[in-house]
Amino acid sequence: QVQLVESGGGLVQAGGSLRLSCAASGSIFSINAMGWYRQAPGKQRELVAAVTSGGSTNYVDSVKGRSTISRDDAKNTVYLQMNSLKPEDTAVYYCNARIATISFNAQYDYWGQGTQVSVSS
């Protein structure tokens, strides 16, 4: 009943910027939090950034000061603005949302299919 669709990934040179978008759709009652995870080959998946419905944010240490997460509640969309990108940022980025649906008012985590971010040196 809930779908997350990511966009905005691509290839960028080191020092460049990308803006990732994730739009949630379906039988949504409320979105409690949205965020971005990433996974590089041979690496563990890690939380990059997240924002709660109350506006609280958190970031992995490696992107602090370079990235900003924001959300548009009217569009059920979360954005991740990434600046000063480094080759170490190369990974598949997955959108995550903690959502209560109309049919069942409980919070579950939903995942997008991922978007590739590649940063060349």
Care to describe what's here?
The structure is a single chain. The protein is mainly β. It has strands spanning 2-7, 10-13, 18-26, 28-39, 46-52, 57-59, 67-72, 77-82, 91-101, 107-111, 115-120. A hairpin with a 4-residue loop joins β7 and β8.
Q: Which spans have pLDDT < 50 for at least 5 consecutive residues? A: none
State the end-to-end CA separation: 41 Å
Shape: elongated
Order of helices and strands: EEEEEEEEEEE
Q: What is the percentage of strand-forming residues?
A: over 45%
Q: What count of helical segments does DSSP give?
A: 0
Helix content: under 10%
The helix/strand class is mainly beta
The rounded Rg comes to 14 Å
Q: Residue-averaged pLDDT, rounded?
A: 96
Largest sheet: number of strands, sense, barrel closure: 7 strands, mixed
Number of E-state strands: 11
Compact overview of the structure:
With 121 residues, the chain is mainly β. Helix content is 0%, strand content 62%.
Task: Lay out the secondary structure.
Layout: E1 2-7, E2 10-13, E3 18-26, E4 28-39, E5 46-52, E6 57-59, E7 67-72, E8 77-82, E9 91-101, E10 107-111, E11 115-120
Q: What brief labels describe this structure?
A:
121 residues; mainly beta; seven-stranded mixed sheet; four-stranded antiparallel sheet
